[in-house]
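FW: tagging you since you asked about this chain on Friday. Here's the raw sequence from the shared folder, copied in full. Didn't touch anything.
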Amino acid sequence: MADNTQALTIFEQKNVQTLAELAPQSYRENQLSHTRCLEVGSALLLRVKKEGMTDALDIEIAKFIEKAKLTVKKMNGKRTPVTQLFDQIRKVYTSMENDVDPTKADSIPNQLQAHRNAYAKKKHEEEERRRREDAARQAKENAKIRYRADVNDDYVSQFNALVNKCINELTDMDKQISLDNYEIVYDGIKNFSCELPATWCQTVISGAHRPAELTPDECRAIQANVMSGLVNRFKEQFPFEVQSIRDDILDRMPSKKKELERIAKSSAEEAARIKAEMEAKERAEAARKEKERAEREKQEAAEKQLAAKKQEMDGLFGAQVATPVAYQPKTQVKKKVVINSAEDIMKIVAFWWSQEGCTKTLEELCKEFKKQITFANTAANSKDNAMFIADVQYEDEVKAK
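HL: got it, structure written out here
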């Protein structure tokens, strides 16, 4: 923090007077030294360009360079009192600025900003946690809706398969009828059970895929709930479907028997004609029944699709809305690399090289890796243990001393 006493001391009259006296004088003296040194150096440089280097000229230039070093030292000594005072003045100004600069470490605004950052991070983490929990909860609800629909479809499919199996058995019995087995087949069809097997609803197993979001117990509960909603429908539909077919076959059997008797009494040609007519009627009746069944299934599928859409919309818009946070500070969220090991540094360097480094010029890369290049030079010039990089070219750098 800036010291007001120090500032007042710097701006005392005597310091201002010292600055007014020393600055012009040191500047004039340094300017004169600067001019003379450059004149002598320029003359020597001109001789080198005209005459080329010789032993005598090399000795003369070495002496000049030593004098240039001394000149720099003297110039520095003359301007130091002036520049030190300027530095002190600048330090006072910058110190005051730093005290109120939020970007400077340990300043009060910076400390306050750090507290804001920590608070914003906490609020952000809370919001992210709430969002994840809401997303997980919604995902689970959606999984329940999908699984319920899948289980319902699976149970209905298995029920339809059972109905079709029974109808196929009745149809097969009808196809096998003849004058010799008429009574046996008639009794078999008449006594065919049209009731849903008592244990079928309890023993049927759902083959619907179980979502990862649901536990086995939750899946079993959904299966039981779905079956409880379907069991009455199944018990009513099964007799309706099967008994209608059975009764229709029984109603047609007396006339079919008469046709079989006609066939038995007719010539081969007439018998073939009668049989063809019978089969055509049976096919037409079967087609009519199949059409009616297909229309019923189509209507059921449309109703089921409509119900599924309604259930999906209820899942999307009927979910509980999270309570909004009363206050949320403005934040800027950026990703920041966390270095956990030395290997992470190598990964970052490799990533930088693949994305940007490989596009840079050799000059740009040398500037980018100046510190590493200096380290390699230092290692190569070590008097105790010189080390060199394999497959990298080295050359001798000669300097006059």
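FW: Residues 108-175 form the longest helix (68 residues).
HL: agreed, and DSSP finds eleven helices and no strands in the chain.
FW: great, closing this out.
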